[in-house]
Amino acid sequence: MEVLRKPKWLKSEKLGAGKARKMMKKLRKYNLHTVCESAKCPNQGECFENGTATFMILGETCTRNCTFCAIDKTNKNLKPTDVNEPKAIAELSNELGLKYVVITTVTRDDLPDGGASQFVEVIKQIRKICDPDVAIELLISDLKGDPDQVKYIVNAGPDVLNHNVETVPRLYDVVRPMADFERSLKVLQTAKSTDCSILTKSGFMVGLGETKTEVLELMKKLRESDIDIITIGQYMAPTKEHYPVAEYIHPDIFAYYKKEGERMGFKLVESAPLVRSSYHAERAKKILNKKL
Asked: What residue numbers bound the domain in which 174 lies?
């Protein structure tokens, strides 16, 4: 397949300014990882400059074989759970003065609980060490569809529970071959049914070959599952070995999806070429404040 040239609207802030270097130095000091680096996010320069990052727990190696993702999938570097990680995240979050902390993970199918207990411990440490007003957003894996582990995490008290569906159901076989759309949807439904006050969130990419109709149908299914927040961004292949970009979606189409999402009743819709699931995640705090 022909490799498409990136259009002019896919330019992002470059990494390398002073605050970004300081952020990376702090991450190394605490032996922490970010999805910003591991997934080669195009916004990491901007986010690091703003003093924000999405912490990634449970190592840098994933047990899934998704064809769109830059995270290591060799399964040769799987590490045991780092018991010091939750406290380190809380301490660095406190040092940075973060008011909104985002935690994500690689998928760890090798762990009996899928890593749920590590999420819970991170929440406990943040609540213990950081300012009481800090909001916590979790971006979890599907935990192999285990509802008990989803409930365990939700009952620990995160403010926002995110799980990305990533793409339309038709493309799962080639984009997320070890995942299942209905299973991912059930994770989000379980979170909301466990605690109706929690904000649920999901995100997906466009430009993988989906149709506009499929996108709208996906958005409708998410809204019917009482999802509060959605993020929609342009897929960009990390390397030539990854799933190829089928199309670069024009910003006007993203604006259309945003308008349609708001019309459907989502509380927040982030839809633009460079949007990623944790980009400007702190905007959810406005919704949280309205609930108080």
From this structure: 8-291
